[in-house]
Specification:
Helices cover about 40% and strands about 15% of the residues. Strand 10, helix 11 and strand 11 form a beta-alpha-beta unit. The strands form 3 sheets. The chain has a 6-stranded parallel sheet, with helices on both faces. A 4-stranded parallel sheet has the order 3-4-5-6. Strands 1-2 form a two-stranded parallel ribbon. The chain has 14 helices and 12 strands. By secondary structure, it is of the alpha/beta class. The chain folds into 2 domains: about 150 residues, Rossmann fold (3-Layer(aba) Sandwich), CATH 3.40.50; about 170 residues, Rossmann fold (3-Layer(aba) Sandwich), CATH 3.40.50. This is Glycosyl transferase group 1. One of its GO terms (molecular function) is glycosyltransferase activity. Pfam families: Glyco_trans_1_4, Glyco_transf_4. Keywords: Glycosyltransferase, Transferase.
């Protein structure tokens, strides 16, 4: 159960949990918000999942009717386990599952930002007391934060993973030609990529400032849309980078996107445990990632770089260093050992059972 089914890390993770579920496991994906038609139109990947999708059209604020609808659904379906992701689904789905008599309830925290608020912390402590789920953190850093805010609650770490059989290295020239940037992107130009929602917390503005400090031949491609796009386009224009920054919007072929890159960068100001650095490295692309949340746990220590958040000078130095290194090691090996989705699925399946 998720809050919504729009493109995002948690939502992608849930689709992978369903896709890679053991044979014979009947998995359904429940979304508190939205509708099937709107969600499928906004995210074509939903058409690829074989798992049934259920939407409960929750509006803003508290909606008692959603609890009632979830309770009735769970009483009818009688699942063996309910797995909630983030606080909203825990409040609605966790309580409904407990009242419906679901034998196993698992809850994953993907970050702990909301627990800094005393009121939210008290609310979550109350819900955990009532629901009594198996509590999981998706990274060691999130587990430490949860234990600090909610002392006494046992927390198990199950790290996020990606499907390394899908995210593989490929033909860089062909992938770059398929990006759709045309002649605006010279074939030999060093290319940095970022895949993230265009939102202030993702730190794109610092990436643009860093790009302005790099040699003029270096280009940047941004996958994703969001409310900050107009501001970022204006910033790129003001920095004289308009010809070097390519806004791709929603990218459906993320494997091809990563294969086109020389370097991947995630300049976030806050994170849980992001999937995109794992995906890029699984495709053989080294990364530069800000040292926030669980992000450091996604970076190959031999081939990747960590930098402080909101520091354009440090980011530029790390990007320049990485581009100058060339083929230093294979980041894919790190992902195979520490970020494969099948290990994640096995760990969750053990909790469900």
């Amino acid at each position: 159960m998720v809050q919504h089914l729009r493109p995002g890390g948690i939502e992608t993770l849930v689709l992978e949990l369903a896709r890679l579920a053991p044979a014979g496991q009947d998995t359904r994906i429940l979304s508190l918000e939205g509708s099937a038609a709107v969600s499928r139109a906004a995210w074509p990947r939903l058409a690829e999942t074989a798992a049934p999708l259920e939407f409960f059209a929750k509006g803003p604020g508290w909606r008692v009717g959603v609890w009632w609808a979830l309770w009735r659904y769970l009483r009818r379906v009688r699942p063996h386990a309910v797995h909630t992701h983030h606080v909203g689904p825990l409040i609605y789905g966790g309580l409904a599952a407990r009242l419906a008599g679901v034998p196993r309830i698992v809850h994953t925290e993907h970050d702990a930002w909301h627990l800094r608020d005393p009121r939210r912390r008290r609310l979550q402590r109350l819900i955990l007391t009532l629901v009594r789920p198996r509590l999981v953190a998706d990274s060691a850093q999130v587990a430490v934060a949860v234990r600090g805010h909610l002392p006494g609650w046992p927390v198990q770490v199950i790290r996020n993973g990606i499907d390394t059989t899908r995210f593989t290295p490929g033909d860089r020239a062909a992938a770059r030609a398929a990006l759709g940037c045309g002649s605006a992107l010279p074939p030999a130009a060093p290319l940095i990529g970022c895949a993230a929602r265009l939102h202030p917390v993702k730190g794109h503005r610092f990436l643009l400032e860093a790009l302005a400090r790099l040699p003029p031949g270096v280009a940047l491609v941004l996958a994703g849309g969001g409310e900050e796009e107009a501001a970022l386009r204006a910033q790129a224009q003001g920095l004289g980078l308009a010809a070097r920054v390519h806004f791709l919007g929603r990218v459906d072929d993320m494997i091809g996107f990563y294969r086109a890159l020389d370097l991947f960068c995630l300049p976030s100001l806050a994170e849980g445990m992001p999937l995109s650095p794992l995906e890029a490295q699984s495709c053989g692309v080294p990364v530069v990632v800000t040292e926030v949340g669980g992000a450091p746990e996604t970076v190959c220590p031999r081939t990747g770089r960590l930098v402080p958040p909101a520091d354009a000078a440090a980011l530029a130095a790390a990007l320049a260093g990485q581009l100058g290194q060339g083929g230093r090691g294979d980041p894919r090996r790190f992902v195979l050992e520490h970020g494969d989705a099948r290990a994640m699925v096995d760990a969750y399946t053990a909790l469900y059972e």
